[in-house]
Each structure stands twice: as C-alpha cells, then as structure tokens.
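Sample pair:
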Amino acid sequence: MIILDGSQGEGGGALVRVALALSTFTGQEFKVTNIRAGREQSGLKAQHLAAIQALRKICAAETNEVQLGSLDLWYKPGKIKAGKYTFDIGTAGSITLFLQALILPSLFAPGKMTFIVKGGTSGKWQASVDYLQHVLLPQLQRFVEKIELKITKRGYYPEGGGEIILEIMPKWNTLDFTNQVRKIILIEQGTLEQIKGVVNLSSELQEQHIGERIRQAVEIELRKSQVPINVRVEYASSNSVGGEVVLWAQYSSTEDPERFNPVIVAGDALLEKGRRSEDVAKEAVGELRGEMESGAAVDSHLADQLIPFMALVPGSRIRVRAVSSHTQTNMDITEKFLPVRFYLKDRIIGVERKEE
C-alpha cells in the first residue's frame, strides 16, 4: 500500500485528487492522512467526497467511511466499467476539481465514458470549465479517439447548480498505449496566432451590459497584440448571480503544423460584487499577458494539471513560467505511483523512466 501525508507540499486537495486518479489507473491502493492540513478548513471537501463516491460507482472502489472534514482516506480501486454516469457535487462544488480524479483513468476505460456532472462551473482557486474545455482537453486528445466537454448550464457561487457533459471515447487500454502516444513537448511558444475568450455571466447582469463592457475593456487592453481577438459574451440563467472572463492565446509553429502539441496559455478573472467591469478585464488580461511575456509554452495553472499525464509518456517536457507548489506536489505524488522521475532545468520540467 502507498502511504501519503496530506500535509506534504502545498497541503491542499490536489494531492488527494491526483492520488485517486493514479490509484485507479494503476490499481494500487493507498492511504492518506492529514488531508488538506495546509488549509484553514482541513479535511475532505464536497468535490473530494463526490469524486470518491463517483469512483465507487465507476470502478467499484473500496474505501473507509468518509465524510466532510475527514482527515484520513483509505482507497482500493477496482476495474473501470464503461458507461454513462450522472453525478451531483452539490451547491458550487468545483466540477473541474471533481473531474481531476476521474479523467485520467477514464482515458483508458474499456469503452465510452459519459459523465453528466452538476456543481460549480467557476469559482475562486480553481480552473473553470471553460479553461478545462479550451486549454487542458486539447492536450489530452493524443490519448483518445475523442474527448469533448459541453457546458449545459452555468453554476456560480454560492448556489452552484451548473452542469456539464463530458464524453470520452478511449483509444487504447493501459497495456499497449505507451509507445504509440505522442510525447507532450511544449517548450517554445511559436508565433502568436490569435487571442480568444469568453465572458460568461448570469442573465441578471445583461440589462447593465456588463459582459459587453468587459469585452470592450479586454479588446482595448489587448489591441497592441496585433492579432485577431475574438471574445464572446454569453449570458445564461443560473441559480446565483456571477460571472467570469477566461482568455487564452493560441500559438502556431512550423515545427508542429498538425498541432499535436498545441500551445495555449490563459488568464482569467472572476466577477465580484463591487468590482468595476474594467478592473475585472484588466486582471484577466494582466494574467494572460504575464504568461505570454514569460515565454512559457505552458501557463502556471496548466503545468500542475499536466504532470500526471506527462508521466504516462516519459520523455515529455514542458517550459513553465514558474514551478508552483501544486506542480511540485503533483510531481512527488506521481512518482509514488508510476516508475518515473521528474527533473527541472531552466524552467523546463521533464519526465523520464526510473531506472530499475
């Protein structure tokens, strides 16, 4: 059994999510103590419980009795069953954080996986479903026949109630894919091609034209980029008033004309009561611009999410703006489940097979 200390590294929930994903993929059971010891409110949160309950359905996993705030978890996975599953995290529990535990093992399921997930589509300290859709999933296409996410309802804090549909059509099983999947090589940005984005807001804000004001401010801030800028505004009925702007820059390279390794870096910002539209736009643009000017081919949010997937194809390398505590923790945890070793040199994170 693999023993983990939840206070390790950044001491957050990422450790649990990555461990659940890799345990289910490899079939190795684990135990983790001191869950989220580095957080003000320690223990399991709603999205962790929902992920554990989901894995009980998907692969008949066995666990100890857990509840909100539990500090210890024992987990023993079974074999994944293909099919259509519906999960409700409840309130504004993060859909993207929930999916971090499910996506990796589902890439190699024995058949099509369809997840209908209800919860929060955006929020503080998490990547939104738009980020997942436009930045992470394009990198995972190499592992499957198809992976597609549709947003069917927006869910903002505190009521949540959003919904997405994620479809995964596997291509390989876990025994024969390694030498056939292209390595994740994201080192150079290449040529800036265009900047895209979405401003999504609850319908209550439409009368004040909040979305259009944010879009206009974004376009003014980015006009010096001298590339096409396409930011759409989307109003939707939701249980709570809220919104978010997500921006991403797409690059092209003559060395990768087929875009097997698409370079996409992003920035975002949440709408909050009392904040001017222009300030929300400036925050998102500032985050995006910081990633663009760093020369990194992987933004700081994508880096930690890519770590477990990089380990599936040793030889993968990415250039990052900086190595976050999340990224370091995910490297440490991944090394416990897979026979790989990560290394860091000049802002490049690489992974290689561990010698016997």
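The domain at 188-293 is CATH 3.30.360.20 (Dihydrodipicolinate Reductase; domain 2).
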